[in-house]
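Please, structure for the following, as tokens.
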Amino acid sequence: MKVTQVISQTMEKWPDQMAVVEKNIRWTYARLGQESRLLQARLRDTELDKRDRVVVWLKNGSQYIATYLALLEVDAVVVAIHPDSAISDVLRTIEHAGAAGIVTTSNLWERNRDALEKSRLRFAMLPQTTLSVSRSIQMSRSLDGLAQIVYTSGTTGTPKGVMLSHDNLVTNTRSILARLSLSPSDSVVATLPFAFAYGNSVLLTHLFTGAKIVIEGNLMYAHCIVESMKKEGVTGFSGVASNYAFLLRQSGFNEINLPSVRYFTSAGGPMPQGLLGKVRECFPASDFHVMYGQTEATARLTMLAPKDLDRKHGSAGRTVPGVSIKILDETGEPVPPGKSGEIAVAGANIMQGYWLDPTATERRIKNGILHTGDLGYSDEEGYLFITGRSSEMIKSGGFRVNPEEIEEVLRDQDGVSDAGVAGVADDLLGEVIVAGVVVQAARESLEKRLLAHCASHLSPYKRPQAIYLLAGVPRSANGKILRLALRERLESLHRQNTLDGIGSSR
């Protein structure tokens, strides 16, 4: 079944139910359906072929939701990217996905028009017009049933396109709903980017059930989020750990009475127990669901029920319906309860593979089983406990960032002979990005120049918070960066933080 078939049933059943609230925009499910059909007509006028990829470069909002549904209904493949993405990221995605078109704002188009017109796009759909760009080169055909490609940074330095089918999305959304039990009387304030798996999951769970989605895109205005929650009678909030930490520190989240909030969810990285305790203390009558998943598994793999938070302290919970988990040793054999190993999962929510990367797909999916790269163990009752990550990815504020991409940008600067990047533990973001560089000659203005270079070449969430001088980047005999040694060195420098400008380990 297609995603849009399920949501069309919602629209027919609850046409007058409020679907989207965004500033002065208030769309019922009937209105959302109308707006989506208008966009479908415009898309068909572009002579879009079935399974053509289309990039969606929009912020969270009513237009994003209508566009997403329109593309899926005409059997196109959604390739959503973060609204703050640098143009270099956008162009790389267009090229790799072989996108036929892009849907974006007039401002973003005009600001980046020269670069976008040189890409392989065939058309650009703006709010008031559709532009013919050029004739795109024929690329590989999408797999049957493919609905969405979600780009997530890989460990090789090149982002990978996770292929999610309609069946993946419908199955996993229904599995999550079996645990959350949402209804048309529910509502959520949406702060997580719809372009990523967690935000996309929050979007679909609410559209499937006829619930209300309140758009509040900028977490920096934390007081606005809390005000919206109170004004709209929001019943749920979903976020990564850093979202909760920020709200507690900046918004008076813990002081304002929000009696309508009945549940919270957290995913996208570990939820520190101290932070979880503070949220529960502030909202003792609200349920808190701890969740674990991967983009490659559509969204959720396990959920810890509120009733088990104290009994299974620190657990990621049990599998959602339709998912099975095994813990494997280094030989690929299952291990008994209590013993740690790699988390391997199976189910109808497992991705179709990585777009145009069969080698990486074969490494991650073996005999229909997804090897997550995460480490953990299960107890005698089947509750999962995550002990670490075999991946080198940095998880900062809910984003997964590849250090190699940042290292390449830093090494591109004159005077930089080597660079290493690591995630350093941070109470607010989980990890902050810190870089170390080896330079030919120290210069007073180097830090500012390197930070400015990163700002012009990297999306905001990929930029280092600090850059330190290193005598050398620790490497193995074959030249690979020793990530653990690098992280320990940068953690020490960042913790000391006693020098102005660029720190130095010399």
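The mean pLDDT is 91. The domain at 3-17+24-165 is CATH 3.40.50.980 (Rossmann fold).
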